[in-house]
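Z., the sequence and structure:
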Amino acid sequence: MTTRTQSFDALVTRYRAPLRGYFRRQGITDDAEDLVQEVFIRLAQAYARMHWDNPDGYVFTIASNILTDHRRKGTTRRAGQHDELSDDLASTGETPEHSLLNRDRLRQVVAALKTLHPNCYNSFILHRFENMPQSEIAKRLGLSVSTIEKHIMTALHHLNTTLGKELA
């Protein structure tokens, strides 16, 4: 081992615990060891051209700059506002091919519905996709509840006859 390597190792040994304490006192608990490592990386990059008149000041200046960078990143990324993504939510189990097939089926359904009379189309969409009660649909469209029921049944029958085999 060279003298320079030994002196850098001594520097690491001397400052590891004080740096960890510094970051913890600043409120950084989870990332303290990572930030200590970052200090030593920056020190190693500058070590060959350094003059060691005040190593404490230099090491803690680097630590202060790293702390500022860390906090800036946390603010920019709004780290405290993120929820952890659970394994249940991370994977829906749906393959891209399956997703593409579902998208195509939806296009077919919409195309089939577009061939219906506008009142029939709107009744079905409002009831099935907007979960609107038939009485509200009737008021909105100015039709009777019985007519809305018939429009919904007509739309279902139309989908079944035109897309029955493709949807199965």
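The radius of gyration is 33 Å. Helices lie at 3-25, 32-46, 55-76, 87-90, 96-114, 118-128, 134-141, 145-167.

Let me know what you think.
H.
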